[in-house]
């Protein structure tokens, strides 16, 4: 008897993965690949699009040859801010430009002067000004720097939708990609921004499709459906939206620590935009308010500094437990440096000779990071009825981080959430009804509750 499965491609900047999930959303097969980057015409590094295209077909051929599986559907999740420019046959006309590619200052100035200034555009598109990371700006650049190429473009597809096209043969745009810091979507009008129409960009954008839409594959004689594909940050939120109906904030931790609140529908303020907040659209088309902090990157950098100073391995913190007495001692020390511009913690300015041990220095680092995290997460909580915080990713396994976060939010229920491959599971759940006859499982996410320390002490004293 063949096992019914869905195949999901999870395409990150570094790792490209293929998963097969059974009807209980358990991984039954996994394949991973990494490609050497190539360069664009300016010599800037970019994704090797041809290697990626071939890898999709190679992986599918391998899966279809496995007699134990029946592939019922395929979906895709991929990183955002990346466009594939295709002709009418779907053939790429240009490299997949890197979203970190420097943006020409003169062209940027011209754009914002034409459309009301940086502040106005940032407010209406619910996104900070991010250069090439605003993927709509990449299209604007092509129009003025390479007009002949721009003319030949049939559609500009975000990467998840290009991957979907490879298998379905259909070209669509998707709300989760269009609505994430692209400068394309006007959150006040709930339509494409005025500049998209005025510049003729609208003609280069494929029709919008729903995230739960499924199309037949372009290969004849098969019975599986193909999803439209999703932006990876949106896909990772879906298992939480499916599993929990009380309002919550998800802090997704990695290099960036991103606080996501799908239950906050207040418009972005100027102050929130300046503090690196943005909105994006989740798979049902509703805005999600988000704030970003570069905390994972800073943690990695400062851990190396601590390890070198105390002559210890960098990985030592992984086995460290939360020490309340160290926290109490450090809290009593008044004064000290301040965070740098709300983006970098005070720890960067601290003298490591002031600490008696690796443990003490590490606790101080996490305390400083949590001070920033509290401000960042509070930005998206304000104005909503949220009482729960879920943390996934690297910091969810760090007991010092989790205990200090619970302490920073005494009125919230704080949970470490663990689930394997949230992004890929989210892409599978988005088209659940197209391939899975079973009800959605209610045990997708494992939670560990972190009681706020002082509350915990009082509870323990009241115990018989």
Please explain how this structure is put together.
With 464 residues, this protein is of the alpha/beta class. It folds into two domains: 3-228, 2-Layer Sandwich (Nucleotidyltransferase, domain 5), CATH 3.30.420.40; 231-464, ATPase, nucleotide binding domain (Nucleotidyltransferase, domain 5, 2-Layer Sandwich), CATH 3.30.420.40. Helix content is 36%, strand content 22%. It is built from 17 helices and 22 strands. The protein has helices spanning 49-64, 105-114, 118-125, 135-145, 147-152, 159-168, 175-178, 194-198, 232-243, 270-274, 295-310, 324-332, 358-381, 399-408, 422-430, 432-435, 453-462; strands at 3-11, 16-21, 27-33, 38-39, 45-46, 69-78, 83-86, 155-158, 173-174, 185-186, 191-192, 208-209, 214-216, 225-227, 230-231, 248-253, 257-261, 277-281, 287-293, 388-393, 413-418, 446-450. The strands form six sheets. Strands 1, 2, 3, 6, 13, 14 and 15 form a seven-stranded mixed β-sheet that branches. It has a seven-stranded mixed β-sheet with strand order 18-19-17-16-20-21-22. The protein has a two-stranded antiparallel ribbon with strand order 4-5. β4 (38-39) and β5 form a beta hairpin. α13 packs across α14 (399-408). It is globular. It starts with a strand and ends with a helix. Mean pLDDT is 93; it is low at 456-464.
């Amino acid at each position: 008897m063949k096992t019914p499965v869905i195949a999901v491609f999870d395409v990150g900047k570094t790792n490209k993965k293929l998963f097969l999930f059974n009807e209980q959303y358990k991984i039954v097969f996994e394949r991973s690949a990494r490609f050497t980057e190539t360069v664009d015409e300016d010599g800037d590094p970019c994704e090797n699009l041809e290697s990626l295209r071939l890898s999709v077909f190679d992986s599918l051929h391998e899966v279809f040859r496995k007699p134990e599986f029946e592939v019922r559907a395929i979906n895709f999740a991929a990183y955002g801010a990346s466009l594939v420019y295709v002709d009418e046959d779907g053939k790429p006309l240009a490299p997949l430009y890197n979203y970190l590619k420097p943006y020409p200052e003169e062209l940027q100035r011209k754009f914002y002067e034409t459309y009301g200034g940086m502040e106005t555009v940032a407010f209406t598109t619910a996104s900070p000004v991010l250069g090439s990371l605003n993927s709509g700006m990449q299209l604007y650049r092509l129009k003025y720097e390479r007009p002949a190429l721009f003319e030949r473009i049939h559609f500009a597809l975000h990467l998840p939708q290009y991957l979907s096209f490879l298998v379905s043969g259909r070209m669509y745009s998707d709300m989760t990609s269009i609505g994430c810091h692209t400068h394309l979507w006007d959150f006040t009008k709930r339509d494409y921004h005025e500049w998209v129409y005025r510049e003729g960009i609208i003609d280069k954008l494929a029709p919008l499709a729903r995230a739960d839409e499924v199309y037949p594959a372009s290969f004849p004689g098969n019975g599986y459906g193909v999803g439209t594909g999703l932006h990876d940050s949106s896909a990772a939120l879906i298992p939480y939206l499916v599993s929990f109906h009380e309002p919550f904030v998800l802090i997704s931790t990695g290099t960036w620590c991103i606080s996501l609140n799908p239950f906050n529908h207040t418009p972005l303020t100027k102050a929130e935009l300046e503090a690196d907040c943005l909105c994006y659209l989740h798979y049902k088309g509703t805005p999600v308010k988000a704030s970003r902090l570069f905390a994972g990157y800073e943690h990695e950098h400062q851990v190396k500094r601590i390890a070198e100073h105390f002559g210890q391995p960098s990985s030592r913190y992984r086995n460290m437990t939360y020490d309340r007495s160290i926290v109490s001692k450090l809290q009593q020390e008044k004064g000290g440096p301040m965070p740098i511009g709300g983006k970098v913690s005070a720890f960067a300015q601290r003298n490591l000779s002031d600490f008696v041990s690796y443990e003490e220095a590490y606790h101080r680092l996490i305390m400083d990071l949590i001070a920033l995290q509290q401000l960042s997460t509070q930005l998206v909580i304000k104005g909503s009825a949220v009482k729960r915080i879920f943390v996934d990713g690297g910091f969810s396994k760090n007991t010092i981080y989790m205990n200090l976060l619970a302490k920073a939010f005494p009125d919230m229920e704080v949970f470490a959430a663990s689930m394997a491959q949230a992004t890929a599971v989210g892409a599978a759940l988005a088209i659940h009804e197209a391939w899975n006859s079973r009800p959605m499982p209610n045990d997708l996410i494992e939670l560990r509750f972190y009681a706020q320390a002082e509350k915990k002490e009082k509870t323990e004293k009241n115990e018989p």
